[in-house]
Amino acid sequence: MMDQNADQDTDQNIDRLVFTGTGDAMGVPRVYCDCQVCEEARSTGANRRFRSSVSVAGPDGEFMIDCGPDWRTQMELAGKRFIRDIVITHAHFDHIGGLPEWADACRWLEIKGQLYAPQEVIDIIVRQYPWLDRHLEMHPIDQGLSLAGWGIKGWKVNHGKNGYSYAYKLSKPGITWVYCSDSIGLPEDQKQPLHGLDLLVLGTSFYKEEAEYTGRSVYDMTEALELLAEVKPGRTIFTHMSHDVDVRKDYGLPEQVSVAVMGYTVSLTKE
Questions:
Q1: What 3-state DSSP class applies to 236?
Q2: 3-state SS assignment for residue 162
Q3: What is the DSSP string of 75-112?
Q4: CA 42, 44, 49, 55: dihedral to nearest 10 degrees?
Q5: What is the DSSP letter of 51?
Q6: Alpha-carbon distance 97 to 217, whole Å?
Q7: Which of 263, 200, 197, 192 is CA-nearest to residue 236?
Q8: Alpha-carbon gap, residue 84 to 140, rounded angstroms
Q9: Pairing mode, if any, of strands 257-259 and 175-180?
Q10: CA–CA separation, 83 vs 14, rounded Å?
Q11: Closest CA to 4 of 270, 176, 260, 252
Q12: Which of 48, 154, 183, 255 is the most exposed place for a label (fewest CB within 10 A)?
């Protein structure tokens, strides 16, 4: 049902999830850092990570989730000149910092971009970038939406010290998956939509984070594995990783759990 090696698959009749960014708020390499992970990211680049986002494309259309400050480079590397539809998880800079560049592309191409987010997220975006609505149409999606053939429903999740984010459940006949890039310590009501998924994309900034829990904002991998034991998704892919995570390392993860790298592509097919 889901092929983690689908990056060679060019069948336009298959929905594909592409990890256009897999990094945390600062990305990898850190400009100030000469740790082994950052140095490798500068050279061979397996650990190079733009700020987290994904694209979903298939026979019914395409869209992105989040538009961080690396958006322009992500588009260039993908060979794309435009994207019309973007869904936003929350209004932190690493998830919306590319909106002015997207809006500028819309201005030059004379095409209105379509931004989708909960109303409270839209309100923050408009306060921060008050000119964006000249070039973007902003759609509140508190009651859900249908986009590129996917039914999409969001719900607020705990983002620890950083407040809140939104996770999104995406469904088509035969497959249901969730994108939850920024969360920690989810209470029972926020965990409920994670049960019985075919795929969970989950943010894990560290393998084992040593910082004081009250100052943290994203699961580490050890905590994530405890969550997975509760909700039991068919497959899980970790994203939103800091320079603590080395993708060359074997972390002894369960067979159904993997770590995303840039460009990692998954086929999302109906049963």
A1: strand
A2: helix
A3: HHHHT-S---EEE-S---HHHHTTHHHHHHHHHHHT--
A4: 140
A5: B
A6: 19
A7: 200
A8: 16
A9: unpaired
A10: 19
A11: 260
A12: 255
Class of residue 132 by CB neighbours under 10 A (exposed 0-12, middle 13-18, buried 19+): buried
* Global pTM value: 0.95
pLDDT tens across 247-265, in order?
999 999 999 999 999 999 9
Strand partners, 196: none
Whole-angstrom Cα distance, residue 144 to residue 152?
6
Q: What letters, b where the CB count within 10 A reaches 16 and e where it falls short, cover 6-41?
A: beeeeeeebbbbbbbbbbbbebbbbeeeeeebbebb
Q: Please answer whether residues 132 and 99 qualify as being in contact, where contact means their C-beta atoms are separated by less than 8 angstroms.
A: yes
170 vs 19, 56, 85, 270, CA distance in Å? 16, 11, 15, 13
pLDDT, one tens digit per residue, over 112-125 is 999 999 999 999 99
Structure-token pair, residue 208: 């084992």
Q: Are 237 and 231 in contact (CB under 8 A)?
A: no
